[in-house]
What we know:
By secondary structure, the chain is α+β, with helices and mostly antiparallel strands. The chain has helices at 39-42, 74-81, 84-99; strands spanning 9-20, 24-35, 52-56, 59-61, 67-69, 117-118.
Amino acid sequence: MFTLNTERIVKWPVIVEVPVDGGETRPEEFEVSFKLIPTDQLAGFGKFEDVIVGWSGVNRETITGQKEELPFSKEALGTMLRIPYARAGIARAFVQCMTGAKRKNSGTPLATGPAATIQPPATIQ
Length: 125
């Protein structure tokens, strides 16, 4: 049975195709918590900052080259959204989530090892 609920937060997988040498990409996955919004708000939608309320599986590289988990914050989200290929992955996931579309197998296996890694500016600690 379908339950009508207009206030929902859904955890959804995001696959980011990270560019690597040789004209290739490497898929990296993390999870975003999206706040679902009504269709009448989609027409004027333009800010992921308003619908992303959390994440997991996002790492950052330290000065020593080690990777550590990057906690969600609006500042870190802003950094991620300035990376075009990360923003594209989030956009694909958002559309899938909002329409209830299941993620399709692209034929490309998911990367093993650490999740999506971003290199934030020095101001993010």
